[in-house]
Amino acid sequence: MISTRTLVAAVTLVASGGVTAHQSTRTKSPSAGQRLFQQCNGCHSAETYEKKVGPSLKGLFKKRELLNGTPVSEGSIRLKIKNGGDGMPSYEQTLSAKELDQLIEYLKSL
């Protein structure tokens, strides 16, 4: 017969393992776009409207136009990232098409 102490230990192990597994599924891992944005966060803020070297990108897709007057759209943002300009380097040779898509999706979520 199983002792009470062994049974309690087994139940505790199973329960704590279940809690750990459940918690790990609830913890949201960074998206691919968010990880890619780490290249950008030296110059651009995503959490605040604070200007760093470049403008904050928080709420970017809610704005009407970029600082240079270009209307904000997925196409204009994509071109800006690819071509750079106004002090921003080009990322056309750095980011694949898939990575650019992932970064755009992340920027839309800000």
What's the layout of helices and strands?
Layout: H1 4-26, H2 32-37, H3 74-83, H4 97-109
Q: If you had to describe this structure to a student in words, what would you say it looks like?
A:
This protein has 110 residues and is an all-alpha fold. The chain has four helices and no strands.
Quick structural summary:
The chain contains four helices and no strands.
Short key terms for the protein model shown above:
mainly alpha; 4 helices; globular; disordered N terminus
Query: Structural class of the helices, strands and pairings?
Result: mainly alpha
**Quantity of strands, as a count:** 0
Enumerate the spans where pLDDT stays under 50 for 5 or more consecutive residues: 3-26
Give the amount of beta strand, in percent: under 5%
Tally of helical runs: 4
Shape: globular
**Whole-number average pLDDT?**
82
> Could you give the order of the helices and strands?
HHHH
Largest sheet: number of strands, sense, barrel closure: none
User: Level of helix content?
Assistant: 40-55%
Distance between the termini: 59 Å
Radius of gyration: 22 Å
How is the quaternary structure best described?
single chain
